[in-house]
Structure formats: structure tokens, C-alpha cells
Design goal:
single chain; 2 strands; elongated; two-stranded antiparallel sheet; mainly alpha
Length: about 200
Amino acid sequence: FPRQTVFAATTNKHDWITDETGGTGRRMWPIRCTRGDVALATELREQLWAEARARYESGEAWHITDPELLEASRLEQDARFRVDPWEETIAKWLASPSDIGSRMQGVSTAQVLAGALLIDHGKRDPAASMRVGAILRRLDWVPGQQQLRDGARVRLYRPVEGAVEAEEVVEPDPRVQDLFDDRERAERESIRPGDYDHTAEEE
């Protein structure tokens, strides 16, 4: 059905967009307003609505189509995005030189939780995995189809072209990968089929 409603709202918050995909934020055209003239708005209200209707009925696009305005609106939306505190750490880990070649082939949320955030296996629950997945999508890493990796079904995230960027590249601690390998090995040896839902963790 064609859209027939327009919402307008005000907020005193600066970072109020939480949808990392842009599904909600991209529908908003945020404007910073420092003052308002209620009397003038009341006086011109009917004229403004009449002009808007006339332009719409003449076939003028009701949404932004100019590339420069689209970019400007995107910048305004991004400036109001509520950034997850994990995002900076994950971005640096994805862009670090160590093993970046294999990461470009895809990473799972479990790898990010263990390798970038050093979160113990017991705390890697579906909520944490979903949080990491949202950050990866925010960083332009897109999820693919589930596939088998070391006997478990996992969903790998891969970067779109030019997505791996970080203002500062840090050398990773080699003990991190050793810790990750040891834990993964122990998990494979101790967890029997049905004991653990790998799919829920990896998505």
C-alpha cells in the first residue's frame, strides 16, 4: 500500500537512532532546531500545506532525490546514531594486520566475541551474538548463508569492498588467537551433539 502518513517528532537527545541497518534512521530527516516562531508558523500553516499539496499533485518527488542532499541527510542521520561501545574495539580487530587475510574470508560472531572482545564462552549468549552481528552490519560486514566450520553450522560475515577501515591499527596480542584455539578445541572435545546450540550462538 502507498504510504499515507508522515510522522514528526521532537527530542532533546542527540543520539537517538539505534537501528544499525538504517531502516529506521534512513526514514528520518533530522533537523537541529534551536528556536521556533509559533506565531509565524500558525500564520503560514495553510499556505505551506497548500504549496506542498500543489507540488505533490504536479508530480514533484516527495522524497529526497538530489545526490548531495541524500549525502547530507545521511551525515545528519549518522551523527545521531547511538554507537555501541564495542564497535571501536571490533573495528580495530577486523582491521589489524594479523590474520587479516582469513578474516576477509569471513568471521563468525563467536570469533569476534572471543578474539576481539575476549569474552568467555559462558558469556557468549545469543544476545551478545546479536549485538556483535549488529555492529558488523554497521561496519558494512554482511552476513552470508550458514555453512559448516569445524563440524558446527555458522554464519560468516564478510566485508563489502572498502569496508575494513580503522583510524588506528593496533598489533594484536598473539595470546588471543592461542586462547581462542584452545577454547574451541576444548569445546569440540567436551560438547556432544545436542548439548549446545551452535546455530543460536553464531547468528
